[in-house]
Amino acid sequence: MNPFIIRGYKGKKYFCDRESETEAIAGAIKNGRDITLVSLRKMGKTGLLFHLFEKLRKEGEVEPVYLDIYHTENLNGLIDQMATALFRIKKSFGARMQEFLRNFRYVRPSVTVDPQTGLPSLSFQIADAREARGTLEDLFEILQERGRIKPVVIAIDEFQQIATYPEQHVEALLRGLIQSLNNTRFIFSGSNKTLLTRMFGDAARPFYQSTEMICRRGEEYYVYDVFFSRWMEK
Fold this sequence. Notes:
Blueprint: H1 19-30, E1 35-38, H2 45-59, E2 63-68, H3 75-87, H4 91-94, H5 97-102, E3 110-113, E4 120-123, H6 129-149, E5 152-157, H7 170-179, E6 184-190, H8 193-201, E7 212-217, E8 220-225, E9 230-233
Parallel strand pairs: 1-6, 1-7, 2-5, 5-6
Antiparallel strand pairs: 3-4, 7-8, 8-9
C-alpha cells in the first residue's frame, strides 16, 4: 500500500512540511491582510489551504470557506461555485436554507444533491449581465451578513481563471465588491504566476497591491515586491 497521500487532504497527521507557510498565512489573516498564494499545480497548494482551514476551524475564531474555480468558463460559473460554497457552511448558517434562497433578487438558484456525497450544489440560470452582477452582489451581501456573526476567510483557488472570462470588467467588479466587506479576508490561490503577477502587480489592474503575494519555489517561499517588480525571499 502506498503510504503517501497523493489526492485530497487527510488531516494533520498526514500533512508534511509547510508549517512555516501555514503560520505565515494564518498570521496575515489574523492581522487583516489578504493573501495571493502562487504555486505550480500538483505541488500541494490546495492541501496547504485545507491544512490552514483545519487549523482555523479548531481555533474557532473565523469561518473558512473554500471554492475552486479552475473549471469555470465565465462569471456564471464563478457565481455557482461561490453560492455552493456559502450554502455548504454548516450548523446554524446552513440550516437557514429558505432564508438563503430568499436573498436573491434577480434569479432563484436551483439546488441539487450529490447522491454519493450528500452535498448540495447551487446553480443559476442567468440571462444577462444585469442579472449576473445583481446575483453576485447578493452573494457578497450574504458574506457581509455572515461576517457580522463571525469573521469569514474565503479561499478562491485558481483565481487567475477570472482573467479568461468573456465578460468585461470582472476584475473591477470583484474588487469593488470585496472592498465593500468589513469582516472578510481573502486568499487568492493560483498556479499561473504570470497571470497572477499581472493581476496583482500591474498598477493599471484593479487588484494592484491589494494583497501580500507569496510564491513557493523549491524549499523557500517569496514575496512579490511591487516596487522592484521581482520576487524577493521573505
